[in-house]
Amino acid sequence: MSTLLLILIFLATVAAMEGFAYAMHRWVMHGPGWFLHASHHRPRNGYWEANDLYFVIFAMPSILLLLGGVQWHWGDWATATGAGIAAYGAIYLGFHDIIVHRRVTHRYVPRSPYMKRIVQAHHLHHAVESKQGCVSFGFLIAPRPDALKQALARSKKARLRTAKAREKDTASRIG
Fold it and tell me: 12-47 burial by CB neighbour count: b if 16+ within 10 A, else e?
């Protein structure tokens, strides 16, 4: 398999993972998987939360594909696909856990329009404390914040968090 094709498989996998992450977040995490994800919509007590198990669950296909491609001779396509999933996981970790939720202390302040939009969209997602009525389920692609605010205002199912609860949540995630 040519190097160019392997690079294309890798890049296509990274791109496809955004769609997969959106679907899993919207219909699994905010559906039957809410029993784990609910912890992510509440203030965290301690460093870990039940939702962190999703990181382990979603890493399994990457590990299996990398192992299959490298050790079990499934083919270079498996290695490229596993690496693409792992790369998306690393991007997600950096964006979601480090930049947005500040699980690692840093001084980064989003300044570019793209980063401001993504961070604000994710904060609007967390403005809802229930599994219904949330907006913005993607991680790297998000609608404009004004459109998300309008959707929240129209939602009959959204149980919006109070400003005091959001402030407490932010403090628990930073400290």
Answer: ebbeebbeebbebbeeebbeebbebbbbbbbebeee
* Spatial distance between the Cα atoms of 24 and 28, rounded to a whole number of angstroms: 5
Residues 6+ apart with CB under 8 A from 1: 75, 76, 77
Q: Mean pLDDT, to the nearest integer, of 54-71?
A: 97
Name the phi and psi angles at 57, rounded to 5.
-60, -45
- Does 163 score more than 80 pLDDT? no
Pair 18, 141: CB distance under 8 Å: yes
Residue 173 has pLDDT above 70, yes or no: no
- The mean pLDDT of 121-129, rounded to a whole number, is 89
